[in-house]
Every structure is written in C-alpha cells, then in structure tokens.
Design a protein that fits this description.
single chain, mainly alpha, 3-stranded mixed beta sheet, 12 helices
Length: 313
C-alpha cells in the first residue's frame, strides 16, 4: 500500500527560499551572476585545454573533465532554483525529482573520483617522474576517466533507489531548492532507518575510497618533496599540487558535513546554506583556483585573449 502511494504521488514543491520574501529577487540576481560566471569559466577552461596543445597532458585532461562534470551538475540544479526565486514555490514531479537526485548525486560522486584520479596523477608526476609518460598513457587516462564517470553513475543510481523505494504520504513541500537526499528523506513515511543507513554507507564508500587515495598519494608526495634538497625545488613541486588541494578541501568538507551524519542532526536552514556553497560557489571555485594559481593555464588564457584581440583588430 505504501509503495502504491509512492507511485501515485503527484510530486513535490520547492519552498526553500519562501521565507526570504523580498530578498528573493536580490538572491536571484546574485545567483544568476554566479551561475553565468560558473558556466563561462568552466566552458572556457574546457575550450582552452582542448585548443592549446601545451595543455594536452593527463593533468589538464582530468581538469577538463572535472569542469565538464561541474557544468553538468550546475545545469541540473541552478536553472530550476533561479525559477523558484522568481516565480515562488516550483512544483516538480515524482519522476522529475528522482531524475534530479540521480543526476546531481552522479555528478557529485564523479567529482570525488576525478579529484582522486588527479591526486594519483600528481603522485606519479612527482614521485616517479621518469615513468610518468609510460604509466599515465592516453589509454590508461581514458580508463581512469571512464571508471570515474561509470562509478559516479552507479553510486548515484544506488542513492536514488535507496530514497525512492520509500513511500511518501505526508507533506509535498521540500524545504530546499533541489531534490537532495536529506530534505527528500525527511518527507518519507514509515521506517527510514534502513534508507538512512544505506545513504550513509554509500556516502562513506564514495568519500572514503576517493579521499583515501588522495591521502595516500599526498603522503608519498610530501615525503618526495621533503627529499628535494633546494627550497626552490620544494616550492616548485608543491605549487603543482596547491590548486588541487584547495579544491579537495572545499569539496570534501561540504560533502562530509552534508552526508556523513544521521538524520537527527539535519537542520534544513543550515543545510540550505551549505548546499548553496557546494552547488553555486564550489563549481566556480575550480576554474578560478586553477586559473589564478596555475601558470600554464594563465599562459593559455593570455594566448587565447591575444588571439581574439588580433582577430578583432
């Protein structure tokens, strides 16, 4: 009977920003600017890496796919959020909510695996540089990217099935701006304990597996850097990892806070603020960090701008 109710469930309504009143238009303008900046920056990173032959290396290949993943992630969430800010509570069907959860969870998990792959790439480049070309071959890099995306989709599917196997028979209102697992789970009826445990287990597998690879990679990188005799050499080696480390800290910090905790500790208002960080701010952080701290990307961007100016002239 519960499953039948879930199947017949008409859908949900997002009311995450309903309490902001007149501030909603201000938030719309702010989030729209951030969204356009995110799209522009990530697409520009992808195009520059593809067009500049100097950036056709494994590290920038992974960076371009990370930008692609971040772009897809924001496309599935932010346009509907902007619509909700302008038009008030926006309805979404049961199937639409499940689809949004699947894609957002899939892209988020894919980001974790790609960040782990990028950490492994830095390990090979710094710790075994003489074998870098042979170990990070084009075929092997393609396999790493493919595995990251496939794993992300599988974990995203698992999280979606764990949530939407539950019956929904209470409130239709999602106190959020997209179908994230905590707010949707809070609307489920019956015993949600097994589903909470399932989400926690899947989140642990994704975060711990990817973060463990990053931790092991950087432990070896740190030991290798400490063996470099000159300060200049150590500084140069560490600078190749700094951008990646900054993105890792923000990404895993937000993800761990949101998904590695029991349902009893959920706070819808606080969680919305954290969600804004990893859906609006973090996707913009990736291209900004790599543009500001990476000399090769800076040179490629300058070259692209000069090329456009010369064509206009």
């Amino acid at each position: 009977m519960g499953q039948a109710n879930a199947t017949a469930w008409k859908g949900f309504v997002f009311v995450g920003f309903s309490s902001f009143g007149e501030l909603q238009l201000l938030l719309f303008a702010l989030f729209l600017l951030l969204y356009l900046a995110t799209l522009t920056a990530n697409v520009f990173i992808i195009v520059v890496i593809r067009l500049d032959s100097h950036l056709h290396t494994p590290m920038y290949l992974f960076l371009s796919f990370l930008s692609f993943s971040e772009t897809c992630y924001t496309l599935g969430i932010i346009p509907r959020m902007l619509s909700s800010l302008v038009m008030g509570g926006q309805a979404i069907s049961y199937a639409g909510c499940a689809a949004q959860m699947f894609f957002s969870a899939s892209w988020a998990c894919t980001d974790c695996f790609l960040l782990a792959v990028m950490g492994f790439d830095r390990y090979v480049a710094i710790c075994v540089p003489l074998h870098y070309a042979s170990r990070m071959s084009p075929d092997f890099c393609s396999q790493l990217v493919g595995t990251s995306f496939l794993s992300g989709y599988l974990f995203g599917l698992g999280m979606t099935l764990v949530i939407f196997r539950l019956p929904f028979c209470g409130s239709h209102e999602i106190q959020h701006f997209f179908c994230d697992t905590p707010p949707v789970l809070s609307l489920a009826c019956g015993d949600t304990g097994p589903s909470e445990l399932g989400i926690l287990t899947l989140s642990l597998l994704v975060l711990l597996a990817s973060f463990s690879l990053i931790t092991v990679s950087y432990a070896h990188i740190l030991m290798a850097i400490l063996r470099i005799p000159s300060n200049e050499g150590r500084k140069k080696a560490f600078s190749t990892c700094a951008s990646h480390l900054m993105v890792v800290v923000v990404h895993y910090g937000c993800a761990s806070f949101m998904y590695l905790r029991p349902k009893a500790s959920y706070s819808l208002e606080r969680d919305q603020l954290i969600a804004v960080t990893y859906t609006v701010v973090t996707p913009l952080l990736n291209p900004i960090v790599y543009s500001l701290r990476n000399r090769a990307v800076q040179m490629a961007l300058r070259s692209a701008f000069r090329g456009r100016l010369l064509r206009r002239g």
